[in-house]
Amino acid sequence: MPGSRPAASGGSAASDAASSALRTAVAVGCLVLVLGGGLWIRRAGSLRGVGTVVVAALVVTAAFAGVTALRVDAVASGPARAAAEAGRFVTVDGVVTEDPRRLDSVGGDLVVLTVRASRLASGRDAVVGPTTLTVFAAASDWTGVPFGTPVTFRARLAVPDRPGLVAVVARPTGPPTVGPAPWWGRAATAVRSALDAASDAALPPDAAGLLPGIVVGDRSGLLPEVEEDFTEAGMSHLTAVSGANFAFFVGAVVLLARACTLGPRATVLLAGLALVAFVVIARPSPSVLRAAVMGVLGLLALLTGRRRHAMPALATAVIVLLAVDPALAVSWGFALSVTATAALVLLAPVLLRWWVGDPDSPDGRPTRSPVRGAVVVAVAAHLVTAPLVAAMAGRTSLYAVPANLLAAPVVGPITVVGAAAALLAVIDVDVGALVAGVTRLPLTWLVTVARVGASAPGAVIPTSDGTVGALVVGAAAVGAIAVWWWLRRRQDARGRGCRSPVARSSGDRSDPPRAPSSRPG
Fold first, then answer.
1. 112, 150, 151, 345: which could join 179 in a potential S-S bond, CB 3.0 to 4.6 Å?
2. Given its phi and psi angles, is residue 234 left (phi above 0), alpha (psi -120 to 50 degrees) or beta?
3. Can you say how many angstroms the Cα of residue 297 is from the centroid of all Cα atoms in its chain?
4. Beta strand pairing status for 168-172 and 125-138?
5. Does the keyword Transmembrane apply (predicted)?
């Protein structure tokens, strides 16, 4: 089990020290370059703008490297790490900051969760202060302990196998003593429980476990075979909270506010309150907060169509999120969200223009179509995320694009109707079940698409993981874009060649008669 070997503490400590030293060296090096760049900018002349951008990037890099080095050093040298290296048994007082997630383990049913400890006591010794613990515990003891619940439990500490910002791994020796959760935590749990009850009452088992996963990321009731089908078909992102969930939900709130003729300020306020409520219900973990930011940025890009504004907003969001939680820098989910959002802002409009653009149109604008827009969004997101998926999992999905295209029309309605069912189920489960029943056919469609996509020949193509897999799949993605561009150019050339004689003949008919030439024949 991860983190169960105290003997590995020496190697982990050495790795943490080397990592901290490297970050410190990067920070110092960037500061030196900033000083040199500042002197160069004063004499740069026409290149002053480029130099300013480079210096600003170095300043941000130095700041992140320095702050991360300090945080890693605090984690690796604190008293909690010393207790973990000694393998001590302690009494932990803290708060659950992540819902327990079930692990497939040979040793039995286990769950993993995160606890923000405020006190670690071992005999007369006690460590007081915030400490993040990764807890591996028995599912029977911890499954019913939700996010935000204060807990007290006895556990043995160990050093994590991987360097990072998690100081300690804990293995409880028994069930926790649970305290009262805050009101917002109880309200969020009530909404999630009401949605589960309404889904169970209105939907078959495969769809009943899928609806809470799509709406609020609750995968506890998802059948294993359904989860496997969604993973192999490249649709697993639908069963977790993503930026699309927030975009659909906030977009529906904005449309509702406009239908009620609310002003811009009231609309923004209502959308903000809805966003905060959705974050609380879906659990305000780092992954959910990241999805909320990316979803809002994607929605703004679609509503405004101004890429010049969307990209600075995306860059600012990435910087702020990394400043709040530097561990996101090594998070696959964060990387996938950022690249997918960037593809929505940068690549999707280009692909759409290649596909439907007509350079000879009177107004110079491409013909727009919702179907074509959905296609290019799915293709763009898959092209940029496929290399990361290959590096992470060592495989790629052959049918991910068509499967997500078939699923796209129903995901938004399921999210909005499911959210309404959850709110109504808090008041009356039967009413909530009646609304949840509306999603029966769309959910059945999703389950069918995932099953067919997972069982089709060549559904999953194994690749090398790590850098090699990312380079191979990335090269294939770049090649696909190049072929698309080449085919589009040939089609445009043929279209211009076919239209030119007609254009000339029509122009001859429309031209006024010319005076006869005075030159001799």
1. 150
2. left
3. 12
4. parallel
5. yes
Give tens-digit pLDDT for 351-401. 777 766 544 444 444 455 556 666 777 777 777 887 887 887 777 777 777
d(CA 188, CA 282): 8
Q: Which residue has the tokens 């007509």?
A: 358
Query: Could you give the CA distance from residue 72 to residue 12 in angstroms, rounded to a whole number?
Result: 12
DSSP state of 368: P
445 has pLDDT over 80: yes
84-182 adopts what CATH topology?
OB fold (Dihydrolipoamide Acetyltransferase, E2P) (2.40.50)
Among 222, 120, 210, 133, CA closest to 171: 133
What the block records as the tokens of 17 is: 């020290």
Selection from 464, 440, 7 nearest residue 203 by Cα: 440
Answer yes or no: are the C-beta atoms of 136 and 171 closer than 8 Å.
yes
CA nearest 3: which of 172, 120, 212, 192? 172
**Beta strand pairing status for 177-178 and 125-138?**
unpaired
DSSP state of 176: P
The residues spanned by each domain of the chain are 6-79, 84-182, 187-479
Q: CB-hemisphere CA count at 13 Å for 439?
A: 38
Structure tokens at 351: 């692909």
Tens of pLDDT, residues 174-216: 889 998 888 888 888 889 999 999 999 999 998 998 999 888 8
391 Cβ partners below 8 Å, 6+ apart? 465, 466, 467, 469, 470
Q: Cα(291)–Cα(484) distance, rounded to whole angstroms?
A: 30
3-state secondary structure of 360: coil
Look at residues 350, 363, 452 and name the one whose alpha carbon lies nearest to residue 407. 452
Residue 424 CA, chain-centre distance (Å), reads: 28
Tokens for 126, please give them.
């006690």
* Whether 8 contacts 159, CB under 8 Å: yes
Cα–Cα nearest to 66, from 18, 29, 12, 15? 29
Contact 294, 317 (CB under 8 A): yes
